[in-house]
Amino acid sequence: MELFEDFKINNQLQYGIEDLGFKKPTPIQSKSFPVIMSGKDVVGIAQTGTGKTFAYMLPILQNLKYSEQKHPRVLVMVPTRELVIQVEQEINKFAKYLNLRVAAVYGGVNMNTHHQLVAQGCDIVVATPGRLYDLTLSRALQLKQIKQLVIDEVDVMLDLGFRFQLTNILEILPPRRQNIMFSATMTEDVNLFIQDFFKSPTTISVAVSGTPLENIDQVCYAVPNFYTKVNLLLDLLKDKDTFQKVLVFVPNKKSADLVFNLLEERFSYEVAVIHSNKTQNYRLRSIENFNKEKTRVLVTSDVMSRGLDLHKITHVINFDTPRYPENYMHRIGRTGRAEEQGSSILLYTEKEREAKEAIEELMGTSIKELEMPEQVEISKQLTPEERPREKEIDNPTKIKDEDAPGPAFHEKKEKNRKENLGGSYRRKLEKKYKKPKTRGDKNYNKRNKNK
Ligand code: AMP
């Protein structure tokens, strides 16, 4: 289906789309529409930027008849609070001519506020799994009318350890429903999840990155260590005319804080950071400031940023080299969107060379390597992880093999492998006399005989 008209959607939706100025459906929208309309279970492989939110919302809204009933009929679950807000905004954007009630619920907000919100009745609930489950436990929200379930960003959801909450919710949903799932990547966890809960789903997928690779100018630098990477970053970011809106990817919260603090010393309010240990308000403010171009540089980890719709990023800087090449594709897909040219810079240490090569193999192209600018100081300072492990001489108790399993993870010794069946004395007697000898055994047999 090449045009929105081909979808034969109702006028209200059509007007909404026209107002938004969308010319034609994106590939994931074209592929999803007929399948979701058919009522089958669907697994969509697509990441943010591909138009996936409308890909599932469009057919859902087309099917959703006006109703005044209290209980929601559509449930959309997403991993983070930011995404709840974003999805709610997306729905309201193009459903403005529909009479639709959307309730957005997520953790960190007073429970009473959400009790009052859902008590008013709603058609669609957009939620994080934890808060949703709490609301159903307290009976504020009933899910017995749910006809369609969407789980978005399942890979992130499982990464964040939400499987338990998801399973709990799936178990209380009515069995006759349509399951729709979107994930940026297929992982073993995602696959198992689908097998457990989906009925022969149809899989729809679009290219790994929503952005064509030709739109992104990719370069890399070989950098000896963490602090030299920081020096290089400081040097690059000096050029404010070129580096107008920059997303800096770091591997985890700890590096996020460290890199942020070092950048902040130089660039103060031009820099912001988001990761899961920051309060919700802090994160929302950081994203808003970045989108409004109040801040120029946003430091983030993969999981936190995935799914967020950030506009017009001029540069993606990969402070580390992702171990999974797909994550690199997700990262660089944040720039060069909507037919604009974007830039990606990868910083890699010798240890990360292999990961860089895996990325190049996946893309079928190599990343142009640039010389370190002369003015960038090569730091001698090492992080605790980078420091060579000190060898202990004359420590007779030290295990020689570095890979030897630690105390909490070792094979059981032979004598501990035996299963403890209890009553060893009784078993020994039984074996010897071939019949029960102790009083307990005799009584047990007597009781069983009388049954
Ligand atoms: P998503 O992948 O759902 O996060 O969407 C990414 C962005 O693309 C959002 O800002 C949408 O408003 C926008 N978008 C969605 N569908 C279309 C379309 N058919 N044409 C142009 N932009 C779109």
From TrEMBL:
Identify the residue span(s) of motif Q motif.
Answer: 2-30
Q: Which residues form the Helicase C-terminal domain?
A: 229-378
Q: Which residues form the Helicase ATP-binding domain?
A: 33-204
Query: What keywords would UniProt list here?
Result: ATP-binding, Helicase, Hydrolase, Nucleotide-binding
Q: List the source organism.
A: Mesonia phycicola
Q: Which SUPFAM superfamilies match?
A: P-loop containing nucleoside triphosphate hydrolases
Residues covered by the DEAD-box RNA helicase Q domain: 2-30
Q: Which family does it belong to?
A: Belongs to the DEAD box helicase family.
For bias kind Basic and acidic residues, which ranges apply? 383-420
Where in this protein does the record put region Disordered? 378-451
Q: What is this protein called?
A: ATP-dependent RNA helicase RhlE
Q: Which GO terms describe its cellular component?
A: cytosol
What residue spans carry the Basic residues bias annotation?
A: 425-437
Q: Which CDD domains match?
A: DEADc, SF2_C_DEAD
